[in-house]
Amino acid sequence: MKLLVTGGAGYVGSVAAAVLLEHGHDVTIIDNFSTGNREAVPADARLIEGDVSDIVEEVLSEGGFEGVVHFAARSLVGESVEKPNEYWHDNVVTALTLLDAMRAHGVNNLVFSSTAATYGEPDVVPITEDMPTQPTNAYGATKLSIDYAITSYAAAFGLAATSLRYFNVAGAYGNIGENREVETHLIPLVLQVATGHREKIFMFGDDWPTPDGTAVRDYIHILDLAKAHVLALESNEAGKHRIFNLGSGDGYSVKQVVEMCREVTGHPIPAEVAPRRAGDPATLIASSEKAKQELGWTPEHTDLRTIVEDAWAFTSALGDRSHAAKKKA
Protein backbone atom coordinates (compact mmCIF):
# COMPACT_ATOMS: atom_id res chain seq x y z
CA MET A 1 0.00 0.00 0.00
CA LYS A 2 1.01 3.61 -0.56
CA LEU A 3 0.83 5.05 2.95
CA LEU A 4 1.07 8.43 4.64
CA VAL A 5 2.64 8.39 8.11
CA THR A 6 2.21 11.62 10.07
CA GLY A 7 4.77 12.22 12.80
CA GLY A 8 7.02 9.60 11.26
CA ALA A 9 10.19 11.15 12.71
CA GLY A 10 9.08 10.55 16.29
CA TYR A 11 9.98 7.56 18.46
CA VAL A 12 6.91 5.44 17.71
CA GLY A 13 6.25 6.85 14.25
CA SER A 14 9.76 6.20 12.95
CA VAL A 15 9.81 2.58 14.13
CA ALA A 16 6.35 2.00 12.69
CA ALA A 17 7.47 3.54 9.38
CA ALA A 18 10.51 1.26 9.30
CA VAL A 19 8.39 -1.84 9.96
CA LEU A 20 5.83 -0.81 7.33
CA LEU A 21 8.66 -0.49 4.80
CA GLU A 22 9.92 -3.94 5.80
CA HIS A 23 6.45 -5.30 5.03
CA GLY A 24 6.65 -3.93 1.51
CA HIS A 25 4.61 -0.76 1.87
CA ASP A 26 5.46 2.57 0.22
CA VAL A 27 5.82 5.19 2.99
CA THR A 28 5.60 8.98 2.83
CA ILE A 29 6.28 10.81 6.11
CA ILE A 30 5.07 14.24 7.20
CA ASP A 31 6.85 15.72 10.22
CA ASN A 32 7.59 19.26 11.39
CA PHE A 33 10.47 18.10 13.65
CA SER A 34 9.08 19.88 16.69
CA THR A 35 9.96 16.75 18.66
CA GLY A 36 11.05 14.24 16.01
CA ASN A 37 14.60 13.43 14.91
CA ARG A 38 15.84 13.53 11.33
CA GLU A 39 18.20 10.63 11.93
CA ALA A 40 15.23 8.43 12.90
CA VAL A 41 13.52 8.79 9.50
CA PRO A 42 13.97 5.52 7.58
CA ALA A 43 16.18 5.97 4.53
CA ASP A 44 13.64 4.37 2.18
CA ALA A 45 10.80 6.64 3.25
CA ARG A 46 9.88 9.83 1.41
CA LEU A 47 10.01 12.81 3.78
CA ILE A 48 7.92 15.98 3.55
CA GLU A 49 8.68 18.57 6.20
CA GLY A 50 5.85 20.70 7.58
CA ASP A 51 2.75 20.80 9.77
CA VAL A 52 0.14 18.18 8.95
CA SER A 53 -2.71 20.70 9.04
CA ASP A 54 -0.90 22.94 6.53
CA ILE A 55 0.17 20.41 3.90
CA VAL A 56 -1.87 17.21 4.20
CA GLU A 57 -4.44 18.39 1.64
CA GLU A 58 -1.71 19.02 -0.93
CA VAL A 59 0.07 15.74 -0.18
CA LEU A 60 -3.06 13.58 -0.48
CA SER A 61 -4.10 15.41 -3.65
CA GLU A 62 -1.21 13.64 -5.41
CA GLY A 63 -3.43 10.59 -5.44
CA GLY A 64 -2.69 6.92 -4.99
CA PHE A 65 -2.62 6.90 -1.20
CA GLU A 66 -4.35 3.86 0.28
CA GLY A 67 -3.95 4.48 4.00
CA VAL A 68 -2.82 6.83 6.76
CA VAL A 69 -1.14 6.17 10.10
CA HIS A 70 -1.59 9.23 12.29
CA PHE A 71 1.04 9.74 15.01
CA ALA A 72 1.61 13.51 14.86
CA ALA A 73 0.49 15.04 18.17
CA ARG A 74 1.58 16.76 21.34
CA SER A 75 1.97 14.12 24.04
CA LEU A 76 3.27 15.53 27.35
CA VAL A 77 0.71 15.10 30.11
CA GLY A 78 2.01 17.88 32.36
CA GLU A 79 2.34 20.33 29.50
CA SER A 80 -1.22 19.57 28.41
CA VAL A 81 -2.49 20.76 31.79
CA GLU A 82 -0.51 23.99 31.51
CA LYS A 83 -1.21 24.63 27.80
CA PRO A 84 -4.54 22.99 26.98
CA ASN A 85 -5.17 25.43 24.13
CA GLU A 86 -2.14 24.14 22.25
CA TYR A 87 -3.19 20.52 22.77
CA TRP A 88 -6.76 21.06 21.60
CA HIS A 89 -5.55 22.88 18.51
CA ASP A 90 -2.54 20.75 17.59
CA ASN A 91 -4.18 17.42 18.35
CA VAL A 92 -7.89 17.77 17.60
CA VAL A 93 -7.93 20.44 14.89
CA THR A 94 -5.07 18.69 13.08
CA ALA A 95 -6.85 15.33 13.25
CA LEU A 96 -10.08 16.81 11.86
CA THR A 97 -8.14 18.47 9.04
CA LEU A 98 -6.57 15.10 8.26
CA LEU A 99 -9.90 13.25 8.32
CA ASP A 100 -11.47 15.78 5.96
CA ALA A 101 -8.51 15.62 3.58
CA MET A 102 -8.69 11.83 3.57
CA ARG A 103 -12.39 11.96 2.77
CA ALA A 104 -11.89 14.53 0.00
CA HIS A 105 -9.28 12.38 -1.72
CA GLY A 106 -10.81 8.95 -1.23
CA VAL A 107 -8.33 7.64 1.32
CA ASN A 108 -10.39 5.31 3.46
CA ASN A 109 -7.96 3.42 5.71
CA LEU A 110 -6.75 4.91 9.02
CA VAL A 111 -4.78 3.78 12.04
CA PHE A 112 -4.75 6.30 14.88
CA SER A 113 -2.15 6.51 17.64
CA SER A 114 -4.24 6.82 20.81
CA THR A 115 -3.32 6.36 24.46
CA ALA A 116 -4.16 4.70 27.76
CA ALA A 117 -4.56 8.24 29.13
CA THR A 118 -8.11 8.11 27.74
CA TYR A 119 -9.03 5.89 30.71
CA GLY A 120 -7.83 8.29 33.39
CA GLU A 121 -7.40 6.62 36.78
CA PRO A 122 -9.13 3.23 36.51
CA ASP A 123 -10.57 1.49 39.55
CA VAL A 124 -9.90 -1.98 38.15
CA VAL A 125 -6.93 -3.56 36.36
CA PRO A 126 -6.18 -5.01 33.91
CA ILE A 127 -7.87 -2.34 31.80
CA THR A 128 -10.21 -3.51 29.04
CA GLU A 129 -11.58 -1.48 26.16
CA ASP A 130 -15.12 -1.42 27.58
CA MET A 131 -14.08 0.35 30.78
CA PRO A 132 -15.16 4.00 31.33
CA THR A 133 -13.05 6.65 29.64
CA GLN A 134 -12.42 9.45 32.11
CA PRO A 135 -9.23 11.31 31.12
CA THR A 136 -7.72 13.52 33.81
CA ASN A 137 -5.72 15.81 31.55
CA ALA A 138 -6.03 17.61 28.23
CA TYR A 139 -3.73 15.15 26.48
CA GLY A 140 -6.00 12.19 27.22
CA ALA A 141 -9.11 14.27 26.54
CA THR A 142 -7.90 15.32 23.09
CA LYS A 143 -7.08 11.76 22.12
CA LEU A 144 -10.49 10.57 23.31
CA SER A 145 -12.19 13.35 21.35
CA ILE A 146 -10.41 12.20 18.20
CA ASP A 147 -11.57 8.65 18.86
CA TYR A 148 -15.16 9.94 19.00
CA ALA A 149 -14.65 11.81 15.72
CA ILE A 150 -13.27 8.72 14.02
CA THR A 151 -16.24 6.65 15.20
CA SER A 152 -18.67 9.13 13.67
CA TYR A 153 -16.73 9.38 10.39
CA ALA A 154 -16.71 5.60 10.12
CA ALA A 155 -20.48 5.44 10.66
CA ALA A 156 -21.35 8.31 8.32
CA PHE A 157 -18.72 8.03 5.59
CA GLY A 158 -17.58 4.40 5.66
CA LEU A 159 -14.10 5.12 7.03
CA ALA A 160 -12.15 1.97 7.90
CA ALA A 161 -10.29 2.77 11.11
CA THR A 162 -8.49 1.42 14.15
CA SER A 163 -7.38 3.31 17.27
CA LEU A 164 -4.52 1.76 19.22
CA ARG A 165 -4.35 2.76 22.87
CA TYR A 166 -0.75 2.42 24.04
CA PHE A 167 0.41 1.85 27.57
CA ASN A 168 4.13 2.39 28.39
CA VAL A 169 6.13 2.05 25.20
CA ALA A 170 9.82 1.27 25.72
CA GLY A 171 12.87 -0.35 24.19
CA ALA A 172 14.48 0.35 20.83
CA TYR A 173 14.64 -1.07 17.33
CA GLY A 174 18.12 -0.96 15.88
CA ASN A 175 19.24 2.65 15.69
CA ILE A 176 15.82 4.05 16.60
CA GLY A 177 14.97 4.66 20.24
CA GLU A 178 13.78 7.29 22.70
CA ASN A 179 15.72 10.50 22.14
CA ARG A 180 13.65 13.49 23.19
CA GLU A 181 14.66 16.95 24.31
CA VAL A 182 12.12 16.68 27.15
CA GLU A 183 12.07 13.14 28.52
CA THR A 184 9.30 11.95 30.86
CA HIS A 185 9.41 8.15 30.52
CA LEU A 186 10.93 6.07 33.31
CA ILE A 187 13.33 3.73 31.49
CA PRO A 188 15.18 6.41 29.47
CA LEU A 189 15.29 8.64 32.56
CA VAL A 190 16.91 5.84 34.59
CA LEU A 191 19.38 5.14 31.78
CA GLN A 192 20.34 8.82 31.73
CA VAL A 193 21.72 8.27 35.23
CA ALA A 194 23.88 5.43 33.92
CA THR A 195 25.24 7.66 31.13
CA GLY A 196 26.04 10.48 33.53
CA HIS A 197 23.43 12.86 32.16
CA ARG A 198 21.39 12.72 35.36
CA GLU A 199 22.62 12.50 38.97
CA LYS A 200 19.89 10.21 40.30
CA ILE A 201 16.40 8.95 39.65
CA PHE A 202 13.39 9.86 41.75
CA MET A 203 10.81 7.24 42.74
CA PHE A 204 7.53 9.00 43.41
CA GLY A 205 6.20 7.18 46.45
CA ASP A 206 7.21 3.90 48.07
CA ASP A 207 3.98 3.38 49.99
CA TRP A 208 1.66 2.38 47.15
CA PRO A 209 -0.57 -0.70 47.63
CA THR A 210 1.77 -2.81 45.46
CA PRO A 211 4.13 -5.70 46.31
CA ASP A 212 7.18 -3.45 46.84
CA GLY A 213 5.43 -0.14 47.51
CA THR A 214 6.31 1.52 44.20
CA ALA A 215 3.94 2.12 41.29
CA VAL A 216 3.43 -0.66 38.75
CA ARG A 217 3.20 -0.09 34.99
CA ASP A 218 2.73 -2.19 31.87
CA TYR A 219 5.63 -1.90 29.41
CA ILE A 220 5.28 -2.74 25.71
CA HIS A 221 8.27 -3.12 23.39
CA ILE A 222 8.35 -0.62 20.53
CA LEU A 223 8.72 -3.37 17.90
CA ASP A 224 5.64 -5.22 19.15
CA LEU A 225 3.75 -1.93 19.06
CA ALA A 226 4.83 -1.19 15.49
CA LYS A 227 3.73 -4.61 14.28
CA ALA A 228 0.23 -3.96 15.63
CA HIS A 229 -0.06 -0.99 13.26
CA VAL A 230 0.71 -3.21 10.28
CA LEU A 231 -1.93 -5.72 11.35
CA ALA A 232 -4.49 -2.96 11.86
CA LEU A 233 -3.89 -1.36 8.46
CA GLU A 234 -4.12 -4.68 6.67
CA SER A 235 -7.36 -5.73 8.37
CA ASN A 236 -9.42 -2.51 8.64
CA GLU A 237 -13.00 -2.76 7.36
CA ALA A 238 -15.08 0.02 5.83
CA GLY A 239 -17.59 1.53 8.24
CA LYS A 240 -15.93 0.06 11.33
CA HIS A 241 -13.86 1.80 13.98
CA ARG A 242 -12.04 -0.67 16.19
CA ILE A 243 -10.29 0.23 19.45
CA PHE A 244 -7.57 -1.95 20.95
CA ASN A 245 -5.42 -1.68 24.06
CA LEU A 246 -1.77 -2.52 23.49
CA GLY A 247 0.29 -3.67 26.44
CA SER A 248 2.16 -6.73 27.62
CA GLY A 249 -0.48 -7.75 30.17
CA ASP A 250 2.19 -7.79 32.89
CA GLY A 251 3.32 -5.09 35.25
CA TYR A 252 6.71 -4.05 36.58
CA SER A 253 7.28 -1.74 39.53
CA VAL A 254 9.52 1.31 39.55
CA LYS A 255 11.93 -0.54 41.84
CA GLN A 256 12.02 -3.49 39.47
CA VAL A 257 12.79 -1.21 36.53
CA VAL A 258 15.58 0.57 38.42
CA GLU A 259 17.10 -2.73 39.54
CA MET A 260 16.97 -4.17 36.03
CA CYS A 261 18.67 -1.04 34.68
CA ARG A 262 21.40 -1.50 37.31
CA GLU A 263 21.92 -5.10 36.22
CA VAL A 264 21.99 -4.32 32.51
CA THR A 265 24.21 -1.22 32.71
CA GLY A 266 26.47 -2.23 35.61
CA HIS A 267 25.90 1.23 37.07
CA PRO A 268 24.73 1.71 40.70
CA ILE A 269 22.04 4.23 39.60
CA PRO A 270 21.27 6.17 42.79
CA ALA A 271 17.53 6.34 43.49
CA GLU A 272 15.71 8.63 45.90
CA VAL A 273 12.14 8.36 47.15
CA ALA A 274 10.07 11.50 46.51
CA PRO A 275 6.46 12.32 47.44
CA ARG A 276 3.70 10.81 45.33
CA ARG A 277 2.59 12.85 42.33
CA ALA A 278 -1.04 13.90 42.26
CA GLY A 279 -3.08 11.81 39.86
CA ASP A 280 -0.68 8.87 39.66
CA PRO A 281 -2.51 5.54 40.00
CA ALA A 282 -0.84 2.69 41.88
CA THR A 283 -1.14 0.18 39.05
CA LEU A 284 -1.77 0.44 35.30
CA ILE A 285 -1.86 -2.82 33.38
CA ALA A 286 -3.54 -3.42 30.03
CA SER A 287 -5.63 -6.31 28.91
CA SER A 288 -4.69 -6.90 25.27
CA GLU A 289 -6.92 -9.96 24.84
CA LYS A 290 -9.14 -8.15 22.36
CA ALA A 291 -6.14 -7.26 20.16
CA LYS A 292 -4.87 -10.82 20.34
CA GLN A 293 -8.23 -12.33 19.41
CA GLU A 294 -9.47 -9.85 16.80
CA LEU A 295 -6.24 -8.42 15.41
CA GLY A 296 -4.12 -11.54 15.65
CA TRP A 297 -1.48 -9.59 17.55
CA THR A 298 0.88 -11.30 19.99
CA PRO A 299 3.60 -9.32 21.77
CA GLU A 300 6.90 -11.18 21.56
CA HIS A 301 9.26 -8.96 23.57
CA THR A 302 7.53 -8.70 26.94
CA ASP A 303 10.50 -9.54 29.16
CA LEU A 304 11.73 -6.49 31.08
CA ARG A 305 15.38 -7.44 30.57
CA THR A 306 14.95 -7.51 26.79
CA ILE A 307 13.24 -4.11 26.82
CA VAL A 308 15.95 -2.54 28.98
CA GLU A 309 18.81 -4.18 27.05
CA ASP A 310 17.48 -2.83 23.75
CA ALA A 311 16.97 0.63 25.25
CA TRP A 312 20.47 0.59 26.75
CA ALA A 313 22.08 -0.50 23.47
CA PHE A 314 20.47 2.49 21.75
CA THR A 315 21.27 4.93 24.58
CA SER A 316 24.90 3.79 24.73
CA ALA A 317 25.32 4.12 20.97
CA LEU A 318 23.69 7.55 21.06
CA GLY A 319 26.19 8.66 23.69
CA ASP A 320 29.10 7.29 21.66
CA ARG A 321 27.90 9.14 18.53
CA SER A 322 27.49 12.37 20.48
CA HIS A 323 30.99 12.05 21.95
CA ALA A 324 32.50 11.33 18.54
CA ALA A 325 30.73 14.35 17.04
CA LYS A 326 32.02 16.64 19.78
CA LYS A 327 35.55 15.25 19.39
CA LYS A 328 35.42 15.82 15.64
CA ALA A 329 34.18 19.38 16.11
From TrEMBL:
Gene3D superfamilies from the xrefs?
Answer: NAD(P)-binding Rossmann-like Domain, UDP-galactose 4-epimerase, domain 1
Q: Check the record and name the SUPFAM superfamilies matching this protein.
A: NAD(P)-binding Rossmann-fold domains (SSF51735)
Q: Which residues form the NAD-dependent epimerase/dehydratase domain?
A: 4-247
Identify the domain of life.
Bacteria
Give the catalytic activity. UDP-alpha-D-glucose = UDP-alpha-D-galactose
Which keywords describe this protein according to UniProt?
A: Carbohydrate metabolism, Isomerase, NAD
Q: Which GO terms describe its biological process?
A: galactose catabolic process via UDP-galactose, Leloir pathway
Q: Which Enzyme Commission number(s) are on file for it? A: 5.1.3.2
- Listed pathway(s): Carbohydrate metabolism; galactose metabolism
GO terms for MF: UDP-glucose 4-epimerase activity
Q: Which cofactor does it need?
A: NAD(+)
What sort of enzyme, by top EC class, is this? isomerase
* Family named by the database record: Belongs to the NAD(P)-dependent epimerase/dehydratase family.
Complex formation: Homodimer.
Q: What is this protein called?
A: UDP-glucose 4-epimerase
Species name: Corynebacterium glutamicum (Brevibacterium saccharolyticum)
